[in-house]
Design a protein that fits this description.
The chain has 90 residues and is mostly helical. Helices cover 81% and strands 0% of the residues. The longest helix has 33 residues.
Length: 90
């Protein structure tokens, strides 16, 4: 997962979120991103598998991955805030 193309795609979403935050509060942008992620992942699940018996495992996988990524990013951004201040992070 951690290859340059992956981060390039993620950065495109972040740039779009930053652009949207000029019009909308960041709390709304954050909620919209989570909703979009949930919707896209649900779509992806049903395209790839869609079996009732694997749905709970898929939910657990997505939640665990999100939790792992959130923890990693919180640690990284906290470090950047402490080093550079919050204006230079995103």
């Amino acid at each position: 997962m951690a290859n340059p193309e992956f981060f390039d795609v993620a950065d495109k979403f972040i740039h779009l979120a930053n652009e949207l935050s000029k019009k909308w509060p960041t709390t709304r942008i954050s909620a919209a991103i989570m909703y979009a992620s949930a919707r896209y992942n649900a779509f992806n699940f049903f395209v790839k598998d869609g079996k009732d018996e694997t749905q709970q495992k898929a939910i657990e996988y997505y939640c665990e991955q999100y939790k792992k990524m959130l923890k990693e990013n919180m640690a990284n951004i906290q470090k950047e805030f402490e080093e550079k201040g919050n204006d230079s992070v995103m």
